Fold:
Amino acid sequence: MRSASCFLFATLAAGFGLLALPNFAFAQEPGSGQIAVAGLPEAPRPQFEVAAIEPPAQQTPSGQSQTTPQGNASSQAPVPHLNETASRSDVVSLTASQKLNLAFRSATSPFAFGKPFLVAGYHEALDEDVGFGWGAEGYGRRVGVAYLNSLNGTIIGSGILTSVLHQDPRYFRLGYGTVRHRGLYAVANVFICQHDGTRKWEPNYSNLGGSLIAAAISNAYYPSDETSAGQVISRGMSSIAWSAVGPVFHEFWPDVSRKILHRDPTHGLDAQARAADQARKQAREEQK
Structure:
């Protein structure tokens, strides 16, 4: 139980440590799609360049066909993507209605219904929320409030606040690198996100604010002895930490699918990402 609490608070400490960094720590190289964050491994880059599908040949003024170099997302038209996870980042920004629709679909997905059972088990194992009682009835109540917290946080954070603050609610997969490299990148996305217009990384105020607002709303259905300001903040922090589960799952699920189900949900985009990453490393070695 103590180790589980340490994991949640370590996740929060690492994330808020990122937010506490000075602005230059979030600096980007123009057009690189990278974010430089101290403490993370080599700056993880969502697949702005490496996951682009090779476009059809274009006609030059002389009538000869010319193929746009693969891997240069800036030379291709942005593509629409209305899912909560993307394996490429040259996508069209979402409208407010699309964000709300995406938030609703995310809040009613099988994953969203499954996670509250884990959260409820965690809180019952730690003897928390004693006002709900114990046994099957108490566990069922914990599952219900865990889902309500998640629903409110998703609708407010991913739907409403992202529209107001012009932040992108989607998770852009990395798809290459070591497990540690990708895991840190996934957890970091709880605390940072892309701006709709600039596509630069910035603090994920939407996710953080949505979790805290949902925790405040939860006072309406928590026992009266568990509605203090300290308990609300604790629930909000716990919700923020648990929100790392989604990005980690989405980052590694295609690897599990390819290994066990022999299906590639990315349709080769991860393979392109790994090949491009290897080419970059080789080029750097040759320059030394």
Remarks:
- Confidence is low (pLDDT under 50) at residues 1-75.
- The beta strands are 58-59, 65-66, 85-86, 171-172, 192-194, 201-203.
- The radius of gyration is 21 Å.
- Residues 2-52+71-287 form one domain.
